[in-house]
Amino acid sequence: MHKQIYVNLPCKDLPASKAFFEALGYAFNPQFTNDKGASLILGDNLFAMLLAEDFAKTFTSKAFVDPKTATTGWVCLSCESREEVDTLVAKARAAGGHIPSEPQDYGFMYGHGFEDLDGHHWELVHMSGMPPQA
């Protein structure tokens, strides 16, 4: 099975995107960070590569959609607690992120999310149990 994950996200303003995620408390791996891309450390072996849009275009022949108006997917991260979910959403809001919906509480799972400066959707969840049997 896989040992690491790298989610690649194009960014219109890489320095602004880096500052946004630093405001949320995240760090970058300097070995894989330069003016074209930044390796955002999300956890052990979990990374998002924030790529300057012109550089990101060198990896695909497909057109990019505007994540502020279209969804092709989203990043979902687990959190240790409901408080961690709420704290990260509050930090995202304070750093200029958009909060597209209210928190969702399913009893066994609590989730909330934000959109970063480019409109990429980040969902945060805390699992406190298992879903009820169907």
Plain-language structure description:
Keywords: Dioxygenase, Oxidoreductase. InterPro entries: Glyas_Bleomycin-R_OHBP_Dase, Glyas_Fos-R_dOase_dom, VOC_core. This is Glyoxalase/bleomycin resistance/extradiol dioxygenase family protein. GO terms for molecular function: dioxygenase activity. The protein is built from three helices and eight strands. It is an alpha/beta fold and 134 residues long. The protein has two domains: 61 residues, 2,3-Dihydroxybiphenyl 1,2-Dioxygenase, domain 1; 64 residues, 2,3-Dihydroxybiphenyl 1,2-Dioxygenase, domain 1, CATH 3.10.180. It has a four-stranded mixed sheet with strand order 1-4-3-2. A four-stranded mixed sheet has the order 5-8-7-6, covered by helices on one side. β2 and β3 form a beta hairpin. The longest helix is centred in the middle third of the chain and has 13 residues. The protein is globular. The protein starts with a strand and ends in a 7-residue tail after the last strand.
| Number of helices, counting only DSSP H or I runs of 4 residues or more | 3
| Overall geometry | globular
Broad structural category: alpha/beta
One letter per element, helices H and strands E, the order comes to EHEEEHEHEEE
β-strand percent reads 25-35%
- The CATH architecture of the largest domain is Roll
Helical amount: 10-25%
Supply the number of structural domains: 2
| Beginning-to-end CA distance, first to last residue | 30 Å
| Top CATH class of the largest domain | Alpha Beta
| Average pLDDT over all residues | 95
* CATH overall fold name of the largest domain: 2,3-Dihydroxybiphenyl 1,2-Dioxygenase, domain 1
Number of E-type strands: 8
Radius of gyration from the alpha-carbon trace, in angstroms: 15 Å
Poorly predicted tracts of residues:
none
Protein name: Glyoxalase/bleomycin resistance/extradiol dioxygenase family protein
GO molecular function: dioxygenase activity
Organism: Pelomonas caseinilytica
Keywords: Dioxygenase, Oxidoreductase
